[in-house]
Design a protein that fits this description.
heterodimer; A: about 160 residues; alpha+beta; PH-domain like; three-stranded antiparallel β-sheet; 6 strands; about 20% strand; B: alpha+beta; seven-stranded antiparallel β-sheet; flat
Chain lengths: ~160, ~500
């Protein structure tokens, strides 16, 4: 066995990037308005304009980082185990055998539901190994959940 | 315990009570708290009229005495066929049935007051659970010892039950070594250092010293408490090889005998603190899986850490390790030299290795910690590469086992090696999981080597009625009287 090549990896839906971008834009707009108004009132229009520009530049910078974070997520279903890779600064790769999965959890928060996305979480007996895959479109999340449950059962036992 | 009488048969049916001294022995547990409260209230009474507070103490004692007596009145136990039934509770009834076949360990605990009264507490642990499932507090000492033999005989054969009392001693700790090890611990050194500093300070600045002493008194008391607990808890430590696991007895005022079951060991840790190294001492800890908690929060399996050897020589440790791990120690290799830049303080200890059965790693800055993890217990394999590791071309590989703390870490290995390790370790873990499950074909007599069909078969470990066999391997699913539960396949040799 060797590490899988790039083609076989699956990735979260582009909806995850749209969701992250929308979150980022919202936060940037709110912060820009807040600081812009505060500095405008306190120090005048020049300070207000500068603080507005700084917040927008910071937002654009984070968007580059968030984009990379989004692109780093990938997962792969192999015969015996599931691989999940993530992270830009700290790169992580988890190998979770299907037989060790205790249960699979699908969650969708209010923002995720707006974008029709769900997060799939795998739980094992080890606290450190719990792997999650965010930003899956709801049918894909359901498919993955069913498949993982089925594989987990067939590897662990016919409960 | 040198009890070599023949194992008695199951005692007569009919309800039996606990020892009449039980309420007194139960109050004994409250004594330290009561003494503390009394001291506090007398100190206070100098300022105000402390009469009311002492009355309060008397009321507490009376209430707990009445409670203890009522508890004794309503608690009873008896054998029903091959189950032990314990009933207790006046308002909230609690009735437990402990099937003898599932009893994994029977521990005897004897607190100081109970020892003076000649009674002991019996704790019964079932297979597939890490905590105490049944408790009889208190029984007469002889009765407790006899009942323990009966209970163990219901699970193992008679011989095993007798031999579990007189098994091979594996390690023991002399009082001198225990004292030395506690004196050379960080807690003691902080304590002595603080007292010495205060004494010196007292020569020059008596007022500052008094203020500091008042401020530090609480901390020093709690530190002294830690030292005392270590001494009294590990006093007279003896580990004996039993059929189901290592049997440990220890304790000064309260004696405890407990069992570390072989099959539930998730990880073994050998710690060599800096101050102990000149003497070649080390301590051994084991992580043991408890009940498989499939709860909503997903906390996972509860894992208990136990001292397998509070202090011992390298030889003692090797002796125990050889029995627990079985087989040679995997060869360890060191990370590349450039890892020194990433881990300057721990590089001197870092090393790791694995074979088909175990992964072993050494970490630590001042205290050297060696961790062994059986690959068949691995829950997941992870590769992590942090920002400091990337420019150096290093990565860390973790082998996670159940619980929050235990894992083997192949720290700061070369990237290619890390990639290879991830694949190798997950493949070896898979094989190890398969290997440790003997086929039931041997027992059903056709002996033709063809794999039997999936289904429920008698549990080879004998602790449960049935265990699920699926596509050539045993699973952790077991059934007792139609009730399903989980217990990992054990590897007792």
């Amino acid at each position: 066995m060797t590490l899988p090549d790039e083609q076989t990896w699956l990735r979260p839906s582009p909806g995850l990037w749209r969701m992250r971008r929308a979150e980022l834009v919202t936060v940037t707009v709110v912060l820009a308005a807040f600081f812009g108004l505060v500095f405008l009132a306190a120090l005048g229009p020049a300070a207000g304009g500068i603080s507005l520009a700084v917040v927008i530049v910071l937002g654009a910078g984070s968007s580059w980082f968030v984009r990379r974070r989004y692109r780093a997520w990938r997962y792969q279903e192999r015969h015996e185990d599931l691989l999940v890779a993530r992270g830009v600064m700290v790169r992580r790769l988890s190998v979770v055998p299907y037989g060790r999965m205790q249960f699979v959890e699908v969650t969708a928060g209010p923002v995720e539901r707006l974008f029709h996305l769900s997060t799939v979480k795998l739980h094992t007996a080890a606290a450190a190994s719990d792997a999650r895959i965010p930003g899956l479109e709801t049918p894909e999340a359901a498919r993955l959940r069913d498949r993982l449950t089925e594989l987990g059962e067939s590897m662990a036992a016919g409960m | 315990m040198t009890d070599d009488r023949p194992v008695p048969a199951l005692p007569h049916d009919g309800w039996r009570r606990l020892h009449p001294f039980s309420p007194v022995a139960r109050i004994g547990r409250l004594v330290p708290a009561l003494v503390f409260l009394f001291l506090v209230s007398t100190v206070h009474s100098k300022a105000e009229n402390g009469r009311a507070e002492t009355d309060y103490l008397i009321v507490i004692t009376l209430v707990s005495a009445v409670y203890g007596y009522v508890h004794w009145m309503v608690t009873r136990w008896r054998f029903e066929g091959d189950t032990l039934r314990i009933e207790t509770g006046l308002i909230r009834k609690d009735s437990r049935r402990l099937p003898l076949a599932r009893i994994q360990a029977v521990d005897i605990v004897r607190p100081l007051l109970a020892r003076m009264l000649g009674v002991s507490e019996l704790r019964i642990r079932l297979a597939g659970s890490g905590s105490t499932d049944g408790k009889l507090a208190y029984l007469a000492e002889a009765e407790a010892a006899e009942l323990r033999l009966v209970l163990l005989a219901g699970h193992h054969d008679t011989e095993a039950a007798v031999s579990s009392n007189t098994g091979l001693p594996m390690a023991s700790v002399t009082t001198g070594r225990l004292l030395g090890s506690v004196l050379l611990s960080l807690v003691t050194i902080v304590l002595v250092g603080t007292v010495a500093t205060l004494a010196v300070l007292d020569q020059f600045e008596p007022r500052t010293a008094a203020a500091a002493a008042g401020f530090l008194a609480v901390y020093m008391l709690s530190f002294a408490g830690v030292v005392w607990r270590r001494l009294s808890g590990q006093y007279g430590f003896i580990a004996v090889e039993g059929p189901e696991g290592v049997r440990i007895s220890r304790g000064l005022l309260q004696t405890i005998s407990e069992t570390v079951p072989y099959g539930r060991i998730q990880a073994v840790r050998q710690v060599e603190p800096l101050l102990w190294r000149p003497f070649g001492w080390c301590r051994l800890e084991v992580d043991i899986a408890g009940a498989t908690a499939r709860n909503q929060r997903g906390e996972g399996t509860s894992v208990v850490r136990k001292a397998l050897l509070p202090v011992g020589s390298q030889q003692d440790a090797w002796h125990l390790l050889a029995r627990l791990l079985g087989g040679p120690d995997p060869v360890r290799t060191r990370p590349p030299w450039r890892a020194r830049f990433k881990a300057p303080l721990s590089f001197h200890f870092l090393s790791a290795g694995h074979d088909g059965a175990h992964a072993v790693c050494v970490t630590g800055r001042l205290n050297r910690a060696t961790t062994w993890v059986p690959l068949e217990k691995s829950q997941s394999i992870r590769r992590v590469q942090g920002p400091a590791q990337r420019p150096l071309g290093l990565a860390t590989v973790h082998v996670d086992v159940a619980g929050k703390r235990a894992r083997a870490e192949f720290r700061d290995r070369e990237v290619q090696e890390a990639d290879r390790l991830v694949e190798e370790l997950s493949e070896l873990s898979r094989l190890a999981r398969l290997q440790h499950r003997p086929p039931p074909a041997a027992s059903n007599g056709n002996g033709h080597g063809d794999v039997p069909p999936s289904g429920w078969y008698p549990d080879p470990s004998g602790r449960h009625e049935r265990r699920y066999w699926h596509e050539g391997q045993w699973t952790e699913h077991v059934a007792n009287g139609g009730r399903r539960s989980s217990e990992a396949v054990t590897t007792t040799s």
